[in-house]
Amino acid sequence: MKIRKAVITAAARGERLYPVADTVQKAMLPAIDIDGLHKPVIQIIAEEAFASGIEEICVVCAPGDGDRYISAFHSLRDNLVKSFKSVDWARKEAEKIDQLLNRLQFAEQQEPLGYGHAVHCAKDFVGEEPFLLLLGDYLYVSDLRDRRCAAQLIDLAQQENCSVSAVNPTPEHQITRYGTLTGKQLPGTSGIYQIEKLIEKPSLSLAELELQTPGLRVGYYLCFFGMHVLTPAVFELLQQDISAGSTNVLLTPALQELAKTDKYLALEVKGSRYDLSKRHGLLQAQIALGLAGEAHDETLTTMVELLAEANGRNRK
User: Fold this and answer.
1) I want to staple 132 with a disulfide (CB 3.0 to 4.6 A). Which of 6, 83, 109, 227 is the partner?
2) Which residues neighbour 195 within 8 Å (Cβ) at sequence distance 6 or greater?
3) Before 130, cis peptide (omega within 30)?
4) Could you tell me which residues are beta bridge partners of residue 38?
5) CATH no., domain 5-315
6) φ, ψ of residue 260 in degrees (nearest 5)
């Protein structure tokens, strides 16, 4: 199957990023990407998708935010062109914004009825095609220089012609923050599993009973990476929950049903995910992007200087 569409969910208001999220969508917060350019977070996520072969993107947003995103990006582009006319980095960034605007559309989530509901809002955009699903408040940094995290996932989904979720082995004290799963490793593969059971943010006691995966280090579980390739079948499963009147439609139960009826794999992605909404999440993501990209030396020097200054203060 060919995967050419991506969905980015960005409807949540970002309470944990108060006060900035009161005035600016959290996905518009700035970061320095691996190419050394300053960009809004959502542009970095979109370029992850484009670099992995995606042609069109739909952002699921809160009511009115679509126009705000478009206005903000047009303003950024115009400012780059007018204020930095002959500067090479500004020209490159303006070109990337043009590419983004030409390949971007929006679907509004009228009410905050859960993550699964937000995904369902992209149903008309997706149509009958498989799609890449990304989170609007996660940044991804690959361990491989020539293959993004999304590309690793898409390659396996196209090869196996099925849904695939990205996972990372995660220490047990963190599993209450993530969808967690277990399954059997496919024969002759490394880090590829046939998914058997998924639970959203399980307690440790429940995970110990039902989610241990043979072959993982003791105390580690397979947790969602914040990135999936899904078939349109997921929309029918989500619709069942929506039709039942749920006010908090989750994605994980729908994926559990998908695992019962369709071929559905998990891939240990070679890379790391950074949750921008958690404490120091944006800081961690920025450091990781800096160390992985063209600003590696500058980032490393800055870190060493800060650590030296902090050590000096502590000695006084």
Assistant:
1) 6
2) 165, 181, 182, 183, 255, 259, 264, 265, 266
3) no
4) 32
5) 3.90.550.10
6) -80, -25
Residue 138 identity (one-letter amino acid)? Y
Q: Give the tens place of pLDDT for each residue, 235-245.
A: 999 999 999 99
DSSP strands (E only) in 172-216: 179-185, 192-200
- pLDDT, tens digit, for every residue of 44-89? 999 999 999 999 999 999 999 999 999 999 999 999 988 887 788 8
Q: How far apart are the first and last CA of the chain?
A: 63
What is residue 59's predicted lDDT score, i.e. its pLDDT?
97
| CB atoms near residue 232 (< 10 Å) | 13
Q: Per-residue pLDDT for 14 more than 60? A: no
The runs of H, that is alpha helices, within 2-140 are: 41-50, 65-83, 88-102, 115-120, 123-126
Residue 252: phi and psi, rounded to 5, are -60, -45
Cα separation, 310 vs 146, in Å, equals 36
pTM (2 d.p.): 0.92
For residue 29, which amino acid is it? L
